[in-house]
Amino acid sequence: MKNHKAAIKAALPHTIPILSGYIVLGSAYGILMNSKGIPLFWTLFSSVLIYAGSMQFVTVALLATGFDLIGAFMMTLMVNARHLFYGISFLQKYSNMGPIKPYLILSLTDETFSLLCSVKTPTGISEKWFYFYISLLNHIYWITGSVLGGIIGGLLRFDTHGLEFVLTALFVVIFISQWKAAKNHIPAIVGVLSAVVCRLIFGASDFIIPSMILILLSVTLIRGPIERRGTK
Length: 232
Prior knowledge:
Blueprint: H1 2-35, H2 40-49, H3 53-65, H4 69-79, H5 82-89, H6 101-106, H7 110-118, H8 127-152, H9 165-181, H10 186-202, H11 208-221, H12 223-230
Helix pairs in contact: 1-3, 1-8, 1-9, 2-8, 3-4, 7-9, 10-11
């Protein structure tokens, strides 16, 4: 029990930036679900089991247009294809997580992935439970935000246009934090340049997957220099 308390205490401060983003963005999702006449139960259910912010927003439209299993599967695959790369990069990190591994995989959102890439487990804290409670706390924040949005959606009427930018701002904060913490900036530079090049070539709606592929190939090709620079 002491190990769990220590892990929660160590994990909590790292998740505060994500708390602010998830409460606002989750609330926007809950408000949108309510505006379509979808019961609060489904808002809670989707946030617990789907737990994919961008795909949950897409799900609102899917629910409104009727059930289409194949269409929903293909849409989910396209929207969340980037998570394939997240999983590949975390194969070693999650290799010895035991029974909690399935949950860690489920809860590996964009923000949680970015956070776990940058944080270091404090001395004396179990890495397994440190990762678990970071993931769990972020999940709780999203659930809380979406349920709050669903509750207040029927009470308040206001323009929610632009609320999704909170997620972009959160990514910027996480990137700056990683940049300051890392001694080796080559992977970050590769990532930014790859995204810019693919954005120019493929356009705003289709550049994410090519960017991830280009980043993976580039980092693999220059793995040696990256590792040597990281050890200096």
